[in-house]
Write a structure and sequence with these properties.
Structural class: mainly alpha
Number of strands: 0
Helix content: over 70%
Radius of gyration: 26 Å
Protein name: Twin-arginine translocase TatA/TatE family subunit
Shape: rod-shaped
Membrane topology: Single-pass membrane protein
Number of helices: 4
Strand content: under 5%
Main location: membrane
Keywords: Membrane, Protein transport, Translocation, Transmembrane, Transmembrane helix, Transport
Distance between the termini: 56 Å
Subcellular location: Membrane
């Protein structure tokens, strides 16, 4: 829930009271840069995860490994993904 206009004015007045008017532009600039870096990080991570998902054909990593193991003749029933990967590497 966003604060109302009156609440925002009170917060701004307290900010000016505690930090002074000369610090306001510096802190606003820092907050803007931090938000920009955060958004860039979100964009980068979502692109990487989307590319990885497309490479697996939309399946989870476990489903992709299970399919490869079954096609290679490796028994996957009752084994963890790590155990199946280890068996695939042995072959």
């Amino acid at each position: 829930m966003m604060p109302s206009t009156g609440e925002m004015l009170i917060i701004l007045a307290l900010f000016v009271l505690f930090f002074g008017i000369d610090k306001l532009p510096k802190i606003a600039r820092s907050l803007g840069m931090a938000k920009g870096e955060f958004q860039q990080g979100l964009t980068d991570s979502s692109v990487k995860s989307a590319e990885a998902d497309l490479e697996r054909g939309g399946r989870t990593e476990a489903a992709a490994i299970t399919e490869v193991a079954e096609s290679a003749g490796v028994e996957v029933e009752g084994k963890s993904v790590a155990e199946v990967e280890a068996e695939l590497e042995e072959e």
